[in-house]
């Protein structure tokens, strides 16, 4: 049997994490890796212990839900909480990171972003990534492809 490729493996993990999302607008998952090892994962949702958008609706301000912490930020904060370095790491995200997450990714020393779907790709975020020398790349992800691996196992 053929082994699953790293991109498929880590992007599948991000999609699984997105299934834990408590956001009613978009489910996002993020997986941070280093040396082909998962060091953190996150999904978008409320602050721990707070109410969730799926239970009480979004808390909207200027067109954004202020209740939600983005998946990328949750993964970065998990690293910070556990004292795990993200220097030269890679992040796999179900959707292109927003501007604020892009800035945090750069500041955290992550050098590569792989994402599966475009989502309001901000021009300034792209400019920052290019200036910082962070490689970003949209990679194809087909959940059916993963299902085929599972059926063969």
From TrEMBL:
Gene3D superfamilies recorded: Cytidine Deaminase, domain 2 (3.40.140.10)
Supply the SUPFAM superfamilies for this chain: Cytidine deaminase-like
Q: Which cofactor does it need?
A: Zn(2+)
Keyword Transferase appears in the UniProt entry: no
Matching entries from Pfam families are given as:
dCMP_cyt_deam_1
Q: Could you mention a single GO BP entry for this protein?
A: pyrimidine nucleotide metabolic process
The UniProt keywords, alphabetically, are: Hydrolase, Metal-binding, Zinc
In terms of InterPro entries, this protein maps to: APOBEC/CMP_deaminase_Zn-bd, CMP_dCMP_dom, Competence_ComEB, Cytidine_deaminase-like, dCMP_deaminase, dCMP_deaminase-rel, Deoxycytidylate_deaminase_dom
- Catalytic residues as annotated in Swiss-Prot or TrEMBL: 72 (proton donor)
| Residues annotated as transmembrane | none
Domain (CMP/dCMP-type deaminase): give its ranges: 5-137
Q: Mind naming one GO cellular-component term on file for this protein?
A: cytoplasm
Q: Which residues bind Zn(2+)?
A: 70, 98, 101
Q: Which family does it belong to?
A: Belongs to the cytidine and deoxycytidylate deaminase family.
Q: Which PANTHER family match?
A: DEOXYCYTIDYLATE DEAMINASE, DEOXYCYTIDYLATE DEAMINASE-RELATED
Q: What is this protein called?
A: ComE operon protein 2
Q: What is the primary gene name for this protein?
A: comEB
């Amino acid at each position: 049997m053929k082994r699953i490729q790293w991109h498929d493996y880590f992007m599948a993990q991000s999609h699984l994490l997105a299934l834990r999302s408590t956001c009613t607008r978009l489910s996002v998952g993020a997986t941070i890796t280093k040396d082909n090892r998962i060091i953190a994962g996150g999904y978008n949702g409320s602050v721990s212990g707070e109410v969730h958008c799926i239970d009480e609706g979004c808390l909207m301000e200027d067109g954004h839900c202020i209740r939600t912490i983005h998946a990328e930020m949750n993964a970065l904060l998990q690293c910070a909480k556990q004292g795990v370095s993200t220097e030269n790491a890679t992040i796999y995200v179900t959707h292109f990171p927003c501007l604020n997450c892009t800035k945090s990714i750069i500041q955290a020393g992550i050098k590569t972003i792989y994402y599966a779907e475009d989502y309001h790709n901000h021009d300034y975020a792209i400019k920052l990534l290019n200036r910082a020398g962070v490689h970003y790349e949209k990679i194809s992800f087909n959940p059916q492809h993963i299902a085929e691996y599972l059926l063969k196992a």
